[in-house]
């Protein structure tokens, strides 16, 4: 497969799209945790019991109930290679938990990959909707429609007082995890980020890296999500997140204006240096690539760099991950070989003269 063909087929819609506030908000995601009544949670289920859950979910797909929303394809984890599973994790379409530990795990993927429904992950169902830009309310509307389809055909584990019953107590209640991925380089450069993140945690929100809990916030990318799932409605949870993210966007924009007013020459030097390194480097590791890409994306958003697409950060933060690089190469690569391939892919994507 050629590099161009790989890039065209590898990207999900959320990576290619330009949603609202997309100069700062990379993506918006809703995830719903659901379980089927009178069936053991996945961590306690036997192979036969998890197969029953898989069959029930597949019946919903096969009876055409989901087709009014989108065309879906079912992928069973047992039929996939480790590399294929790794790529799905890197594209944020399945969780590491599903890829590594699931019994009779599967995922139902919509045609444009905006929706992924994980089966037999930590819970029987994990319904995920992923949109480009700041579209958390739109993602919730779609997730709610899909949830209604499953709820009309499956008997959910639900308690009138506690809400939806889940494997992890932190999901009990609404079972919702709403998250927004933000690119905040100006707040980092102006050393305001720690104060902002501290304030976020005090209003019931969590801050994580791009791959969720336990991941590092590389490339100035931060995932903001709700921690509270019990005692508030889904709308209240989303509204709280929406208001906080709007404030963060305003702070980031103000910080960018301040940089341009007070340190334009230094910022220009920083982003041009990173653009030059990415355009000509023959070896680059993932951490440096993430930081350099963050600089270039900031340069694009500030109008300093016009030679390449603003979607470069969305695309390359996924496409330069180990699984993608090895899929493109068609072979298992050593860390050094991945660094070489990563540099090659970035050069091809960032420099029009080599495309």
UniProtKB/TrEMBL annotation:
It is an enzyme of class 2 (transferase). Keywords: Allosteric enzyme, ATP-binding, Kinase, Nucleotide-binding, Transferase. Catalyzes the specific phosphorylation of arginine residues in proteins. This is Protein-arginine kinase. It catalyses: L-arginyl-[protein] + ATP = N(omega)-phospho-L-arginyl-[protein] + ADP + H(+). One of its GO terms (biological process) is phosphocreatine biosynthetic process. The lineage of its organism: Bacteria, Bacillati, Bacillota, Bacilli, Bacillales. The keyword Transferase applies. Appears to be allosterically activated by the binding of pArg-containing polypeptides to the pArg-binding pocket localized in the C-terminal domain of McsB.
């Amino acid at each position: 497969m050629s590099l161009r063909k790989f890039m065209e087929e590898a990207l999900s819609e959320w990576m290619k799209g330009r949603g609202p506030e997309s100069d700062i908000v990379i993506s918006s995601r809703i995830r719903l945790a659901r379980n089927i009544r009178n069936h053991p949670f996945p961590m306690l289920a036997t192979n036969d019991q998890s197969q029953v859950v898989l069959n029930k979910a597949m019946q919903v797909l096969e009876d055409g109930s989901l087709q009014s929303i989108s065309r879906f394809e079912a992928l069973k984890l047992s039929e996939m290679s480790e590399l294929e599973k790794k790529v799905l994790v890197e594209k944020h379409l399945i969780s590491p938990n599903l890829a590594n530990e699931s019994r009779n795990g599967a995922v139902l993927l919509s045609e444009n990959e905006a929706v992924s429904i994980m089966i037999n992950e930590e819970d029987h169902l994990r319904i995920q909707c992923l949109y480009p830009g700041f579209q958390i309310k739109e993602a919730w509307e779609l997730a709610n429609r899909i949830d209604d389809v499953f709820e009309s055909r499956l008997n959910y584990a639900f308690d009138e007082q506690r809400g939806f019953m889940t494997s992890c107590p932190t999901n009990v209640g609404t079972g919702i995890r709403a998250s927004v991925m933000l690119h905040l380089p100006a707040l980092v450069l102006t050393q305001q980020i720690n104060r902002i993140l501290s304030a976020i945690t005090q209003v019931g929100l969590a801050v994580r890296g791009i791959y969720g809990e336990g991941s590092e916030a590389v490339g100035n990318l931060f995932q903001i999500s709700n921690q509270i799932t019990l005692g508030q409605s889904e709308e209240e949870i989303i509204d709280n997140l929406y208001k906080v993210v709007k404030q963060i966007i305003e702070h980031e924009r103000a910080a960018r204006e301040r940089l341009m007013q007070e340190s334009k020459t230094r910022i220009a030097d920083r982003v041009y240096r990173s653009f030059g390194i990415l355009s000509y480097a023959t070896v680059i590791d993932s951490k440096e690539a993430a930081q350099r890409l963050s600089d270039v994306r900031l340069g694009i958003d500030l109008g300093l760099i016009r030679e390449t697409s603003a979607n470069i950060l969305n695309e390359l933060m996924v496409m330069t991950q180990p699984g993608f690089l090895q899929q493109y190469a068609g072979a298992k690569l050593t860390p050094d070989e991945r660094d070489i391939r990563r540099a090659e892919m970035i050069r091809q994507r960032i420099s029009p003269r080599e495309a």
